[in-house]
């Protein structure tokens, strides 16, 4: 009877060691993925020929789905990643089915960096150059917003 508590205690210790090892492995993976896989850069690509002042990609975010605080949450997500969100608001309508990124400065690489940061497929990056907007890209959030990175991660 004296061996049962000893075996039970050893089993608990082994389980705790396995759990601690798994936890350490998850933390190591998270650290390595953040340092090795840095993600899209918020800096304007060197090939940029626009007249924009900042070296950081400047973006506007528009809510095209009609969901409260959608543009604000996306704005915070982009700012946390180093992008310069210069304008936030509603789109002209709330019937946008899919989220898109629009290149406004003739620099598709900058628009693709914004799309990559949000998890928007490159096939939904458009070009409609508007130099009078003084920004690199416009993000129009659609009803598919729940599939985007700002809404996949914990707030």
UniProtKB/TrEMBL annotation:
Q: Do you know which InterPro entries this protein is assigned to?
A: LytR/CpsA/Psr_C, LytR/CpsA/Psr_CW_biosynth
- Keyword terms, alphabetized: Membrane, Transmembrane, Transmembrane helix
The cross-references to Gene3D superfamilies, in alphabetical order and at most eight, read: 3.30.70.2390
One matching Pfam family: LytR_C
The record places domain LytR/CpsA/Psr regulator C-terminal at 57-145
The portions of this protein that span the membrane are 12-32
Top-rank lineage group of the source organism: Bacteria
Keyword Membrane set for record = yes
Can you name this protein?
A: LytR/CpsA/Psr regulator C-terminal domain-containing protein
Where does this protein come from, organism-wise?
A: Salinibacter ruber
Question: Taxonomic lineage per UniProt?
Answer: Bacteria, Pseudomonadati, Rhodothermota, Rhodothermia, Rhodothermales
